[in-house]
Amino acid sequence: MGAESDLSGQNESRPVSLETGQGRNSSEGLPPSPPRKIIHIDMDAFYASVEQRDDPTLRGKPVAVGGSRERGVVAAASYEARQYGVRSAMASVTAKRRCPDLIFVKPRFEVYKAISQEIRAIFADYTPLIEPLSLDEAYLDVTENLKGIASATQIAEEIRKTIREATSLTASAGVSYNKFLAKLASDHRKPDGLFVVTPAMGPAFVETLPIGRFHGVGPATARKMQALGIETGKDLRNCSLAFLTERFGKAGSYYYGISRGIDERPVRANRIRKSVGAENTFFEDLYRFEAMAEALKPIIAKVWRHAETSGVRGRTVTLKVKFADFRQITRSQSSRDPIASIEALEEASLSLLGPILPVEKGVRLLGVTLSSLSPVAEKGSGASETQFSLPF
Predict the structure, then answer these.
(1) Is there a catalytic annotation at residue 378?
(2) Global pTM value
(3) Domains annotated on the chain, with CATH
(4) Is 42 one of the annotated binding-site residues?
(5) 337 is in an annotated binding site
């Protein structure tokens, strides 16, 4: 793909400039500065694509990285598998039921990290302002870039081309004047595509989107919004700041801004994470230990996947429990040494869950967080790095 596209669906072969529309600082009474030029790069089905690249027999077939036929959780799925509804964090049994021909492949995180570092080096040829989100995606601020290229779209095209030549893998890119819109744009032409949202397009682009497509609006929040009659970006924009703050707390101001295409968050280079965590809100309240233990498995798998891909381990495990009446508690335990396996993380999480039972009110949400992080020592190094950073 790779051609830019406007909202009418017409292809455009020339670069789209972001030097239009209202700049930053205007709401503060200061002279407007030029809009930022932000690129969001997202590798296409990264883990699964690496496996298909390295094993030609897997190409064109539905592949799940992680899990197994009988147990476990899918870490990533190829596009062929996604056509059957297979998704990451899905129980392997469910994935196999949806796609009987699904092929399970063991993850090779060291390989993924090495490729991610190659891609990160490509980014660094253009800008030092790189904010990695995971091994397979990152934000780049190219407002002022190392090659003096005026068009952010041209930079995105060059990066995608170089990634393909260097790794034989495809990447999708979104280009816009803020992080929120750049991330939405990168998903708009997947796989192997590029989409640009200019300042003039931003508000109209947002208002047509279903609320579930908004980055930062999870399934539980989407259901809450829908119950309030908020189905699209336009519906969200029609809500007052007071209304959103009253119902969604501090996140209300974020929702108010993004519904108008506004997101002032800067790209933060060398971002250091203090913890990795995941949680899930359930459609039905849980009461039994067995049901909660089963519900924790995909949550724990997601946390461990973050730790693996980030090259970190943690000493503190925190269990978050929210009850049907919205009362929330947390329970934590720390060990002298970092947790070394997903089995150990599961054991620690269940040991925190046991003492809170039985419960009078059902449990509507469970979450697990791993903190007190430290980098994993490279094999044979005898010591670990002193600074944690994501390699992508």
Answers:
(1) no
(2) 0.70
(3) 1-197 (3.30.70.270), 205-258 (1.10.150.20), 275-375 (3.30.1490.100)
(4) yes
(5) no
